[in-house]
Amino acid sequence: MKELAKLRATMPLDDATIAELDPATRTVIGRQWEDRATAEVRTAAAFAKVSFELLDVGASPEVLQIAARAVADELEHGELCRLAASAYYGRDTRWPAPGVAALPRHADAPRRLRPTLRLVEMCCISETIAAAWLEACLAEARSPLARTVTKRLLADDIRHARLGWMHLASMRSDPLLERTIADQLVPLLDSVLRPWLRSASEGFAPGVPAHAVPTPATTREVVLATVTDAVLPGFDDVGIDTRAARSWLAGYNAA
Asked: What global pTM score does this model have?
């Protein structure tokens, strides 16, 4: 509680740039931050589950430490986004409702590989994309509050992305894992990209970049570029065959 109270004290909640917005725009941006708060808390629950699984299968101490810390990071992100939503709404916003973290089951994979497959999806793919997207948000954000929150989320998401790559690199001598990831890479990518691109198509059409709400076009561009230029090369570096995934991604880029 003390840490959250300290966090709230550092937030520029009296951001004058928010007061300059019309009520409708404030409501739309507030909803965006409220949705992000819910997503961050769900991610905390997912990290909690995966942390337990990694401990059960014997991941490295460094990986376990970062994974455990990620739970607290994501809960803090939820509070940051909740505070941002409250500032835009002009009223206090409730903490996100409880919810189950939906994790892919990978029932056909050997039990010892399932936590790694989940970490690949959560960190190597999702958190890598999230970090790039937050960096794009920060580049255009002018609101002191939006910049403060985005900077904090970005720093942590970079560490969470590295968690996945660190764990994957530690297992690169496992031929079965390499084949399994190569076989599952398209569905893993698809499960992450679909929500991102659906969000872009349904987003606040004009965007409000000054308040860390990029245009749908920016979101789509960042997501696809990150997969092409960072995610797939990362898999190449640890010996994962990405040829099928690259062919599949070409369909997204052509659309």
From this structure: 0.93
6-61 pLDDT, tens per residue?
777 788 888 999 999 999 999 999 999 999 999 999 999 999 999 999 998 888 99
Count of positions (residues) in the chain: 255
pLDDT at 10: 81
Cα distances from 198 to residues 61, 217, 237, 255, in angstroms, run: 37, 12, 29, 14
Measured in degrees and rounded to the nearest 5, phi and psi for residue 60 equal: -65, 155
Q: Nearest-CA neighbor of 81 among 48, 25, 43, 50? A: 43
Enter the tokens of residue 26: 């404030």
Residues 29 and 41: their CA atoms lie apart, in Å, by: 19
Identify the structural domains of the chain with CATH numbers, from first to last.
2-254 (1.20.1260)
